[in-house]
């Protein structure tokens, strides 16, 4: 039978696939929210107030500041609309960006300005979708490994406790080299 500590660790390891599954679900909701805002949002042209690019590889927090005059006369401002690090440099030098605003949606503003043939929001949806798929794959792989580990402990006990009654005097680690 396995030791209680080993069993507890094996059971607590189930938190890892649950964590990855949570990330996958979150990224799925991000894709859905981006799609909903892109499909149902109001088209507008945003004035670019600021563009911030962090050029350190370990910190990739890039954002744009936007002022959006809406068709109904209201003006929305977003001081920091976070965007992926690979997208923001392509937006440098632009004074206006095409956006869609969904008042009740989250996120409420998506950038539909094309970079090459693809709008920014579609690139964001692809990134989030790929992140979600990778997290789901990690949840499956870790889940399978932890399932078999727990099953092995339940059936055969802890390998450290199996079949060893006394040390082997002929084991190579016990040999002295002269």
Offer a concise description of the structure.
The protein is α+β, with helices and mostly antiparallel strands and 178 residues long. Helices cover 43% and strands 23% of the residues.
Give your account of this protein's structure.
By secondary structure, this protein is α+β, with helices and mostly antiparallel strands. It has a domain at 27-134. Helices cover 43% and strands 23% of the residues. The chain is built from 4 helices and 7 strands; from the N terminus they run H-H-E-E-E-H-E-E-E-E-H. A 5-stranded antiparallel β-sheet has the order 3-2-1-4-5. The chain has a two-stranded antiparallel sheet with strand order 6-7. Strand 6 (114-115) and strand 7 (118-119) form a beta hairpin. Helix 1 runs antiparallel to helix 4 and helix 2 (15-40) packs antiparallel against helix 4. It is elongated, with a radius of gyration of 26 Å.
How are the SSEs ordered, and which strands pair?
Layout: H1 4-12, H2 15-40, E1 42-52, E2 62-69, E3 75-83, H3 88-91, E4 96-101, E5 109-111, E6 114-115, E7 118-119, H4 120-156
Antiparallel strand pairs: 1-2, 1-4, 2-3, 4-5, 6-7
Helix pairs in contact: 1-4, 2-4
List keywords for this structure.
5-stranded antiparallel beta sheet; 178 residues; 7 strands; elongated; alpha+beta
| Coarse morphology | elongated
Tell me the structural class. alpha+beta
Rounded to the nearest angstrom, the radius of gyration is 26 Å
Describe the main β-sheet briefly.
Answer: 5 strands, antiparallel
- What value does the average pLDDT take? 88
């Amino acid at each position: 039978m396995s030791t209680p500590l080993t069993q507890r660790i094996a059971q607590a390891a189930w938190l890892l696939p649950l964590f990855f599954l949570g990330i996958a679900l979150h990224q799925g909701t991000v894709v859905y929210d981006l799609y909903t805002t892109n499909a149902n949002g109001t088209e507008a042209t945003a004035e670019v107030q600021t563009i911030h690019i962090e050029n350190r590889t370990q910190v990739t927090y890039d954002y744009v500041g936007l002022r959006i005059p809406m068709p109904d006369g209201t003006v929305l401002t977003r001081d920091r609309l976070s965007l992926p690090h690979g997208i923001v440099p392509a937006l440098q030098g632009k004074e206006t960006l095409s956006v869609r605003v969904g008042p009740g949606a989250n996120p409420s503003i998506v950038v539909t300005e094309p970079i090459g043939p693809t709008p920014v929001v579609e690139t964001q949806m692809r990134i989030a979708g790929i992140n979600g798929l990778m997290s789901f794959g990690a949840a499956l792989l870790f889940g399978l490994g932890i399932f078999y580990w727990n099953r092995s402990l339940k059936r055969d006990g802890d390998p450290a406790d199996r079949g060893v009654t006394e040390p082997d005097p002929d084991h190579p680690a016990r040999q002295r080299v002269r």
